[in-house]
Amino acid sequence: MKTCTKCQARLPLRFFPLVNGKATAACAPCRNTERRLHDPLKPLRADPLQVELNHLTHSWQRRTRWPLLAHQEMHS
């Protein structure tokens, strides 16, 4: 068992990968999280159907909810 220097978890040695023949001080999950935070994400392709649904939902919310909220705020 070894303690990770990043998350302080006590884990079996198999969770500590070898780098240049030496065991690392941070566990594999912490190293993976750190790598993911530094790597940029690929941009998502816009789905035309989803874009249309978002626009319809937004326009419906503007017509139905916003006037109701404004009316409630006036009478509060």
Walk me through this protein's architecture.
By secondary structure, this protein is mainly alpha-helical. It has two domains: 2-38, no CATH class; 47-76. It has two helices and four strands. It has helices spanning 28-38, 48-74, and strands spanning 2-3, 10-11, 18-19, 22-23. Strands 1-2 form a two-stranded antiparallel sheet.
Task: Please outline the helices and strands.
Elements: E1 2-3, E2 10-11, E3 18-19, E4 22-23, H1 28-38, H2 48-74
* Number of H/I helices: 2
Q: What is the terminal-to-terminal distance?
A: 60 Å
| The number of domains | 2
Which oligomeric state applies?
single chain
Task: Briefly note the structural class of the backbone.
Answer: mainly alpha
> How many β strands by DSSP?
4
Instruction: Order the strands across the largest sheet as they lie in space.
Output: 1-2
What is the H/E order? EEEEHH
Rg over alpha carbons = 25 Å
Characteristics of this structure?
elongated, two-stranded antiparallel ribbon, 4 strands, mainly alpha, 76 residues
